[in-house]
Amino acid sequence: MPDLARRAAQSRLWTVCKQAGIASHISSLYWYVKLAAHLGSVSVTVGGHTITFAADTRTEYQRVTSLVGERSVVESLLADVRASDVVYDVGANIGTHTCFVSKRLRDGVAVAFEPMPTNAVRLRHNLSVNAPAGRWRVAEFALSDEDGSGQLSVEGDDYGAGKHALSTNGDLDIDVRRGESLIDDGTYPPPDVLKVDVEGAELRVLRGLGDRLDDVRVVYAELHHDLSADYGTSTDEIEQYLRDHGFSVERLNERSDAYHVRAVRE
Question: How do beta strands 218-224 and 193-196 pair?
């Protein structure tokens, strides 16, 4: 059967299942069988590096296998990372970027910042399975432009679920630190490479690095059109901030709501 005809037949069958009220049961059974067949884990290869991720739920499986549409970004990031680099992954989630970076490193270290406790648990597991302990560290707090405490809005508490962001009326109390403070007090070494995905608060992370941003060689950031406005900024302002600090900025993959930039020091 040609692909077009097969897809049409599948669509009609699925419509019948929904009308009969059994679609959700079939979907649950499908994912139960699929996850069981993978024995709770799945391997993904990017840039010649294969990572084994835990995958106990549909959300987690889809996140790691699709890399949330960011495979090309991960490939580009890996090409920029040197074996001896210090890499900050700010907003690491369950490690879809950090694990690949840690595999790429030899003498360097990846510092993964993830304030959501459930994600931090899974992040540690995924890193421990794929890279020696000396190549990575997990920081369970948020980077911003101040030292103190804050609140995190929580959308789903499954591993890798939801989009968690700093908020003035969030669901979870968390610690917040400036990157410059952590470097100056010796908690972490200064970064050579910076990856940022913090749901609109990217400018706060950059400002929080202070003069230490001048030592960063390359920045990868996901910029969010609407979410940036929640923090009193815009994607244009964030791009200009990077240019003002000596970076040339290029856009990578774009969606209607967000896009990635690669900023390289000129």
Answer: parallel
Q: What angle (nearest 5°) sits at the alpha carbon of residue 129, between those of residues 40 and 122? A: 60
> What CATH number labels 67-265?
3.40.50.150
Distance in angstroms (rounded) separating the CA atoms of residues 10 and 172? 43
Give the span between the Cα atoms of 252 and 221, in whole angstroms: 10
| DSSP-derived 3-state class of residue 71 | helix
pLDDT tens string 135-187: 999 999 999 999 999 888 877 666 666 667 777 666 789 999 999 999 999 99
Structure tokens at 109: 């270290």
The distance of Cα 207 from the centroid of its chain, to the nearest Å, equals 20
What are the pLDDT digits (tens) for 62-112? 889 999 899 999 999 999 999 999 999 999 999 999 999 999 999 999 999
Quote the pTM value: 0.86
